[in-house]
Design brief:
The complex is a heterodimer.
Chain A: E1 2-9, E2 19-26, H1 33-44, E3 63-66, E4 69-72, H2 78-93, E5 107-110, E6 117-119, E7 122-123, H3 126-134, H4 158-165, H5 175-179, H6 181-185, H7 192-202, H8 210-217, H9 231-235, H10 242-255, H11 262-276, H12 284-297, H13 299-307, H14 322-338
Parallel strand pairs in A: 1-5
Antiparallel strand pairs in A: 1-2, 3-4, 3-5, 6-7
Chain B: E1 2-9, H1 13-24, E2 29-33, E3 49-50, H2 59-69, H3 76-95, E4 110-111, E5 121-122, H4 128-143, E6 146-149, E7 151-158, E8 164-171, E9 176-187, H5 208-215, E10 220-221, E11 226-232, H6 242-245, E12 249-251, H7 259-262, H8 272-284, E13 294-297, H9 303-309, H10 311-321, E14 330-339, E15 342-344, E16 357-359, E17 364-365, H11 377-398, H12 410-423, H13 430-444, E18 448-449, H14 451-468, H15 483-506, E19 515-516, H16 524-527, E20 529-534, E21 541-546
Parallel strand pairs in B: 1-2, 1-9, 2-6, 9-16, 15-17, 18-19
Antiparallel strand pairs in B: 3-5, 4-5, 7-8, 8-9, 10-15, 10-20, 11-14, 12-13, 13-14, 20-21
Helix pairs in contact in B: 1-4, 1-11, 2-3, 3-11, 5-15, 9-10, 13-14, 13-15, 14-15
Classes of the chains: A alpha+beta, B alpha/beta.
Chain lengths: 339, 559
């Protein structure tokens, strides 16, 4: 199979900006993008830099962006990526898929996003790992002095193991981190990978540090900064429900009374609003989320909105059958208390 | 100059376990690794780790299985240490947070593995090595261990009186060569199986530690013994032995469960050398599937259990072989997998030839695996002897007031060598040499060898070494230059290949993974001894040293 790639080349010591370099390579059927990169390095240009190790999706080294989406190069079939490149080109040009010949559009390979580039496809992961370390990603047990010579293992029932089974699969490959729009907007956001790691230990029945970890995550640039776009869950090469894990962390933090972050207050204000009227109260939601000082400091804006006649009422009219909704909420809260 | 009490090279299972042990012993530790720790090859170990945890199992039984598996070449004092320590080291991993799969009562679950008389392999689904690696890395983070990530070690440096004094390493990120000084050096660089084509190993498993120790004059042991994993997918990615342990069967193209001919009792659960040879014979006799494959049929296990306990295997089979093992058998074949041999060390990981030098994990040879390793014993080897090396290196380093003298000339000399290599504009690149070497070794020094094939292999390796002397690198820059370390890796592979060929040619018997078609029988009278390789300018000198036998006298081996 002959395949054409546009690979991002960048040496900050000599180049002003990254450029795409075209390579045509001959590959066996069933080849992956990683095999293609190795072929380029071996036969075409030994100066191409990328990371790789296990080549079967478990070491997490070779995450790159292919056709604009972050994924592991070792689990991306070249033939599939060629088809994808053609289909994406068709969409860009506003024509139907069959208007663009498969193979006529190069497969684009670029470094991960949300990280500085060291060279070519190699990114600087310093901030990424610093954020992982911030969640204290290790087991913090009640009895740290257990002696392996004398003491047995800490019990963990299969149902308890199931809770961590998905979370432990995280490769820390950086795919979710690369794709996270909240990180693009706010580079100090702790990001999905560290949150997934925090979740792994927080839900482990042998760990007792949930509160301190949740406390750390409930502050600025913590879990509430997530934009809930679900790209992390969608792109994870191990199919981890990363956003679902962040949701669970948020719930646990809220239940632990860690509610000072505007994000937590916003979540609380939503529920209050539903209890009150069944509608989102557009007037109170920002006040409850951001506090009285913020509201006062935005008085001018409020006046402007009022003048335009768009100020929402402080008391919303309840929706029809609001009683039923209230019962649903009460029941849900009771269930949670029981759990 | 960077300086540590204990310098560890390699951050896989053995290196990280050593780092934890040495840190806990109160000495200052630095870990130098060519990839980020969690990218280490340990993450590829799927099946699990052996330990006699059950009340009805015993370390003696584990020891016997290991001795028999080793075809009686393993040193029984060392195997005793490993099997006795196994339970406490596996429990220690659990205490650190390792998420092992569990029984209903919450205790660690264990599964059957090849060559074992008892289901004693603790596991985490089929990602056992992966979760152990991450657990150990996180324990190192908690302890604040200093890592030098993406540093490539080029040389082991000895003091004038022959003690380990440190290493030279390239910081790949900026291309700078550094001297790293230490009181003790622990080499834990892992596998070397990239000497062979189609290896199951990560791309970077190039035997760097073994090669730099060998070049510094330290002896290697038993490197002619290379294990082929019986169930590799088309590109070498292995399917864990647990797939057979859980009930998977091997079938040839005639639909025959052929293992009944080769191992009537244990069938698919015979040791790896036996199963790999059986497959090779079936394929050679024309009873393989097109392309030279055997079928591994997991359907007897049932879809539910496959999805729960072998989910990675299922994913890889679908991705690489295009078959869902819940529905169809997986085409597999033997794949180069594990080096039983390595740098010769004792049960504390200490080299008898060089004070202050320690080794642990796959790069070392103690020898606990002899001529053939049992599945589930490699993670165990790494964790037991990684810990022991860390403890011993800490004790040793505390006994030294200062680090041994680090020769002044070492750094500039190595800088010159690298400069000469990088400045060379003519010549061929390393990649072609590496590919030819790998194909040659698979064809001529693989599962079956003979004097004739090995002599061809040795001549071929020498010719490739000659060509390597004029090798050129493409990347002349310093910034994240991966061309240079990869070129140096190929040099390491060539040295190891030369040892394998020389030792395999000399050993005129068949034992464990070493199968000579011209000497098909084991010969205890002549060959119940370890091969020891020492570097000379003319190639490896091979000497021999006796095997330690304590409890179990050699017997005929059948499964």
């Amino acid at each position: 199979m002959r395949a054409v790639f546009d690979i991002s080349r960048f040496n900050p010591q000599t180049d002003r900006a990254p450029r795409l370099q075209r390579y045509e390579v001959e590959l066996p059927d069933g080849a992956t993008v990683l095999e293609a990169l190795i072929e380029v390095q071996d036969r075409h240009d030994g100066s191409l830099a990328f990371r790789r190790a296990c080549r079967h999706g478990i070491c997490g080294s070779c995450a790159v962006r292919i056709n604009g989406c972050a994924r592991l190069a070792c689990s991306a079939q070249v033939s599939t990526m060629i088809e994808q490149a053609a289909a994406m080109a068709a969409r860009r040009r506003g024509v139907s898929d069959d208007q663009v010949e498969v193979g006529s559009v190069p497969v684009r390979v670029e470094p991960l996003g949300n990280m500085p580039v060291i060279k070519d496809l190699v990114t600087d992961t310093e901030a990424f790992w610093r954020k992982v370390r911030r969640v204290r990603p290790w087991l913090d047990p009640a009895d740290p002095q257990r002696d392996p010579e004398r003491d047995a293992e800490r019990p963990q029932k299969p149902v308890e193991w199931d809770k961590v089974a998905e979370a432990v699969l995280c490769l820390e490959c950086g795919v979710c981190y690369s794709e996270c729009p909240a990180l693009s907007a706010s580079p100090e956001f702790i990001g999905p990978t560290a949150l997934a790691k925090a979740h792994r230990y927080t839900v482990d029945n042998r760990d007792v540090a949930a509160h301190s970890r949740l406390h750390e995550l409930s502050g600025e640039h913590g879990l509430w900064e997530c934009a809930r776009c679900y790209l992390c869950s969608e792109r994870c090469p191990k199919h981890i429900g990363v956003r679902e894990a962040i949701t669970e962390l948020g719930e646990l933090a809220y239940d632990e009374g860690l509610r000072s972050d505007p994000g937590a207050k916003h979540a609380g204000a939503f529920v209050d609003s539903l209890k009150e009227s069944g509608r989102l109260n557009g007037a109170r939601l920002p006040m409850k989320t951001n506090g009285i000082f913020w509201t006062l400091s935005h008085a001018a804006t409020v006046v402007k909105i009022a003048r335009a006649g768009k100020l929402p009422a402080l008391h919303a009219t309840p929706i029809e059958r609001h009683d039923e909704l209230k019962r649903v909420i009460a029941r849900t809260e009771a269930d949670e208390d029981e759990a | 100059m960077i300086e540590h009490d204990v310098l560890i090279v390699g951050a896989g299972l053995a290196g990280l376990r050593a780092a934890i042990a040495a840190t806990d012993a109160g000495v200052d530790v630095g870990v130098l690794t060519k990839v980020h720790p969690v990218r280490s090859h340990t993450c590829c170990a799927q099946g699990g780790i052996n330990a006699a945890l059950g009340d009805d199992d015993s370390w003696e039984a584990h020891m016997f299985d290991t001795v028999k598996g080793s075809d009686y070449l393993g040193d029984q004092d060392a195997i005793e240490v490993m099997t006795k320590d196994a339970p406490r080291d596996v429990i220690a991993l659990e205490h650190m947070g390792c998420p092992f799969s569990r029984l209903e009562n919450g205790r660690i679950a264990q599964r059957p593995f090849g060559g074992a008389g008892f289901p004693r392999t603790a596991y985490a689904a089929d990602i056992s090595g992966f979760v152990i690696l991450h657990t150990l890395y996180e324990q190192c983070l908690q302890r604040g261990v200093k890592f030098y990530e993406e540093w490539f070690v080029t040389r082991l440096v000895l003091s004038p009186e022959g003690k380990a004094a440190g290493v030279l390493g390239i910081d790949i990120r900026n291309g700078r060569l550094h001297a790293v000084r230490a009181k003790a050096v622990i080499c834990a660089t892992g596998p070397s199986s990239r000497v062979y084509e189609g290896s199951s190993n990560s791309v970077d498993c190039t035997g760097d530690g073994a090669a730099i120790a060998y070049r510094a004059g330290l002896p290697l042991m038993d490197v002619e013994f290379v294990q082929f994993h019986p169930t590799g997918l088309r590109n070498g990615v292995p399917v864990t032995e647990a797939a057979r342990g859980e009930g998977g069967v091997l079938v040839n193209a005639e639909g025959d469960r052929f293992m009944k001919k080769y191992a009537p009792d244990k069938m698919e659960m015979a040791s790896r050398d036996v199963v790999s040879r059986a497959e090779a014979q079936e394929i050679a006799a024309g009873r393989g599937f097109p392309g030279g494959f055997i079928h591994l049929d997991l359907r007897p296990i049932g879809a539910e259990r496959i999805k729960q306990s072998l989910f990675q295997v299922r994913e890889l089979s679908m991705e690489i072989a295009g078959v869902d093992p819940c529905e169809e058998p997986i085409p597999i074949r033997p794949t180069p997998h594990y080096f039983m041999g390595g740098v010769k060390v004792d049960v504390h990981g200490a080299s008898p030839a060089c004070e202050g030098f320690f080794a642990a994990g796959e790069v070392s040879c103690i020898s606990v695996h002899g001529a053939n390793r049992l599945g589930g014993n490699s993670l165990l080897d790494g964790v037991v002897f990684g810990r022991r090396a860390g403890e011993a290196a800490a004790v040793y380093s505390r006994g030294l007031a200062r680090a041994p003298e680090f020769p002044q000339w070492a750094l500039p000399h190595a800088e010159d060598e690298i400069k000469t290599l990088v400045d060379r504009d003519e010549g061929e690149r390393h990649a072609g040499i590496r590919k030819e070497l790998q194909a040659l070794m698979l064809a001529k020094a693989g599962i079956y060898r003979s004097r004739e094939s090995l002599s061809e292999a040795l001549d071929g390796v020498k010719a490739l070494k000659e060509r390597y002397g004029r090798v050129r690198v493409d990347d002349k820059g310093r910034l994240f230059n991966t061309d240079l370390p990869q070129t140096l890796e190929t040099g390491h592979l060539l040295d190891l290949a030369e040892c394998i060929c020389a030792g395999a040619m000399a050993r005129e018997e068949s034992r464990g993974s070493h199968a000579r078609s011209d000497f098909p029988e084991r010969d205890d009278g002549e060959w119940l001894k370890h091969s020891v390789y020492t570097w000379t300018a003319d190639g490896p000198r091979v000497d021999y040293t006796p095997v330690t036998i304590t409890r179990f006298q050699p017997e005929e081996r059948s499964y």
